[in-house]
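Trying the structure run again after the queue cleared.
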Amino acid sequence: MRAVVLYWDRLIEFLNENFINTWVSNVELERTPRQKAYMAQRPKNESRTFDKTNPLAKAIMQGWKEHSPVDCLVIAPELDVMGKLPLNDFFHDSSQRGIPDEDAYLKFLEDSLDAKFPGFSEK
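Done. Tokens:
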């Protein structure tokens, strides 16, 4: 996510109070065409690839949008995807509507926590 959005103190506080924030590499989950070349060059002492049969990995893959370089997902403790947001679409949509990125992202997070399932309306 752009540092601009994460610079906003109110958003950082909300994230820290309500979420465990982490990231997963698209390369590790084989979402990029460079995965094979990357894995061949990877130092042997680095961790092995991400287990895609793991329930958390399955939840992450459920929330993916094809061809999106970065997806923001809200995943419940039960591993249900509560919200999904391809960030390229997010920044385009919020700027088109004149909504500051911080407010639009905070609304996405709040809607996810309220079980409104933002991002699931797309086909």
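The CA atoms of residues 40 and 93 lie 38 Å apart. Worth checking whether this holds up in the mutant runs.
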